[in-house]
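Notes to self after the Tuesday call (sharing in case useful).
The group wants a holo model before anyone commits to mutagenesis around the pocket. I volunteered. Ligand is FE2/S2 (inorganic) cluster. Logging inputs and output together so the record is complete.
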Amino acid sequence: MSVTVYVPNDSAAIGIGANATAQAISKMAAERGIPIRVIRNGSRGLFWLEPFVEVVTSEGRIGYGPVEAQDVPSLFDARFLDGGPHRLRIGRPESIPYLAQQERLTFSRVGITDPLSIPDYEAHGGGRGLRVALQAPPADLVEEITKSGLRGRGGAAFPAGIKWKTVMNARAEQKYIVCNADEGDSGTFSDRMILEGDPFVLIEGMVIAGLAVGATEGYIYLRSEYPHAWVILLAAIQKAQDAGYLGSNILGSGRRFELHVRRGAGAYICGEETAMLESLEGKRGMVRPKPPIPALFGLWGRPTLIHNVMTLAAVPVIVDKGGAFYAGFGAGRSRGTLPFQLAGNIKRGGLVEKSFGVTLREMLYDFGGGSASGRPIRAVQVGGPLGAYLPESKFDTSLDYEAFSASGGMVGHGGIVVFDDTVDMARMARYAMEFCAIESCGKCTPCRIGSTRGVEVIDRVIQGRQRTENLTLLRDLCDTLSSASLCAMGGLTPSPVLSALTHFPEDFQRPPALAPGGRASRTIRRH
Amino acid sequence: MDSRLQANTSPTVPGTPDPLATIDSVIVAMRSLPGALLPMLHGIQDVLGHVPGAAVPRLAEALNLSQAEVHGVLSFYHDFRTVPPGRHILRLCRAEACQAMGCDALETHLQKRHGLTFHETATDGSVTLEPVYCMGNCACAPSVMVDGEVRGRVTAGKLDQWVQQWRANAGGNP
Ligand code: FES
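Result:
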């Protein structure tokens, strides 16, 4: 009988050698005449252990990592196919504290199953939510989502149940479900990991949403920076179609749902829901003024339920186990779990799905193990490029929507980017303005012009020219941006800028000679 | 699913496909898609490596848009190029997690050591350097994308290897 070996097909694992490792294992097994079956799973999300190889033994799965191609001969010599001892042997993945201490609801299958196997998906609880949904009246499904307390995971944290109800009650011949897979926030990769590691859960969530609100068509807007996810997603949609999860007769029920995928084209603003709709319609990604809200007047003017990948991927478990089960996790008004992402200068970067209410410090040190460089952690940016920079004094804040925003932060999509004490926060503030200038859709003046002015003003501060006046000017600019911008792009850019200024004022007072002069002269180019 | 969208996502330029024939076949294949302009622009660039100026009037006519509208879309999105890129495309992530792990030093290195700057193609046509703002590889920063494939924990030495290899190949293959 052949031994089953898992080697991740996650793009981050491939980026550090997983394909070479998989090939080396297959080749050596063939040379030694050992029958094996290599399955390319998603990543468990423990990136310091990638490429993380797992072998199915009589005692369950045994993990080894990080396994480079050059380690493969010695692994065979150590009889790793029987779980033999080796310096890279980690043991049972479930007993690694980083995994054992998580609460994986959305990520329950990622890294465990073959992402493109429906039988594997169903053997691990997949498809149950859809079967429940096919039997339930739409209003009951909306009720379960409301009861679960699920809120939009893309950043705005709007209660999902209210959106579902609005779209359900809207009268129209055609309604749409749109999945925002334009995960543009730097420091985030949970959407990518689901798309590559368990795409069926997203598909199932979208079909359930369609059944609930009366939409028969769905679109996934996927960012072009995820070419590997694109390939896997297309394959998954084909498999889902073949298995009857999609199409004109879902699991023999006579109900219908068609799913299409569109590629973005490298515009951060298309993560904003109305800009994304414009882009799906084939236009420039310009923000639309609201109202009208997309729930009533969305894609091609029809009622549209828009959610981020993480929101939709949470739907199957909620419908399967009930809203009360999901609401049993979390803190305050933030119910359920959030897949957090530890990134940047962190020793153990990866995916940590936890109930809301965990503290930033627990994330950084208990899970993350401190900085990768071994130097003190000085600043942390949570919630993407529009999130605030937080100093050590804020590390005990609870990661739930309300507590975190009360302390000046934003949980957003759960990305946690770590910087050690070599960071220059004036430069990070400049970058925030520069990013806004590059990515502004140009529709409103504060965002388009204000951000460019912001870069110039910070440059003068860095160069030591009339610092007091320019810092006052910078605060005024931030005021205008936050009060007069059309959307969150301009509205929230002041957040990283002002938090840098507030918490790290010394970085704006460095002697000009030490300021990074060369970079300050970079001109802004959209193309 | 739109199987017509299953185009090659690698941005490398294969052979020398005929531009006009490519444009027309993409238009024919995707004409009935709702919101077809973006898929068509991607389809053309997937094959040709860029979207030539000749595509604009053809797309405008096919989709019943003005040329200005097509141009507006083409120029709005960072992904689309209107001039052919080098034989290889190196995209360096500039976003925060990669900055925390030293991507700025890599940018400086590419400039000082290899004369490569963002949005420019090396004079020998071997490589085009482009900025990218996150590829979801932030736990393995700093990150680059080499001809459509993500590479993590990139070092200056690794960049040197790639660039030197591309340059060497460029010698006999102008
Ligand atoms: S910030 Fe560079 S890959 Fe995400």
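Two things stood out.
The beta strands of chain B are 88-93, 120-121, 127-132, 144-146, 149-151.
The radius of gyration of chain B is 18 Å.
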